[in-house]
Amino acid sequence: MSESVFTRPARAMSSFPSWSSVRDTLSRRLQGGRRYVSLLLLLAVWQAGSSFGLISTRTIAAPFTILATFRDLLLDGELIGHMSVSLLRVSAGLVIGIGAGTVLALVAGLSRLGEEIVDTPMQMVRVLPHLALVPLFILWFGIGETPKVLLVALGAVFPVYLNLFAGIRSVDRKLLEAGRTLGLSRRETITAIVLPGALPHFLTGLRYAVGIGWLSLVVAEQVNADSGIGFMMIDAREFLRTDIIIVGLLVYALLGLIADQAVRWIEARALRWRPVGLGA
């Protein structure tokens, strides 16, 4: 039986969202926007204080000045050049640090002998302030790119090692017993049970490693560098350009946030098997 012309408007109206759903959507968006109110208020007070001379430009530049400086540095290509150098340094350091941390954690976590050989030296070295090793790195590796990359790598290796090692050792014993009951070999147990069980810990360590890697780069680029965001900030300090210094800090923060979001994206897809309530 064909649809009556009298029922068509009613069905069309039913396809529109109800007032309650629209109200709930608006309420959620307003609640989400309230978290930015304090930030906007701070920026307004900051700009007003700079405009009326209450905040010295030598102490810190005004927000509008910082925005204009960011635009100028971006348009003339200087900022892009320094960002490219910084990204290459931190990427190389993270690859080395994450790779080394993973290998060391597997050696120590999967073998008692490996733990006795690896864990004690790692626990001793990790308590050293690695940023204080800059003078030694310069003596050992010179003033080129090598000490900067290795400083980032040193900062990244320990979060990966500690978290992956803890993840391997915290795998549920019942799962290991089930694997033995099923006749799995040691290799099959490691690949099918231990490594998947330790994956959440590894990804947590990866997030920490990325953050510490950027923190290490901030210091590394301020020592005998001729390019990079850190060099740009040090050069600006000589001319009391607080606007450029703030731009550099904002770029560091933005790049670190993007890197962290990338790891979270990987984490969300790699851990789809976990219950939603336990997800990242």
TrEMBL record:
Q: Which residue ranges traverse the bilayer? A: 85-107, 127-143, 149-168, 189-219, 239-259
Q: Which of UniProt's keywords are assigned here? A: Cell membrane, Membrane, Transmembrane, Transmembrane helix, Transport
Mode of membrane association: Multi-pass membrane protein
Which superkingdom is the protein from? Bacteria
Q: Which InterPro entries match?
A: MetI-like, MetI-like_sf
The protein's job, in short, is: Probably part of an ABC transporter complex. Probably responsible for the translocation of the substrate across the membrane.
Please state which protein family the record places this protein in: Belongs to the binding-protein-dependent transport system permease family.
What is the protein name stated in its UniProt record? Alkanesulfonates transport system permease protein
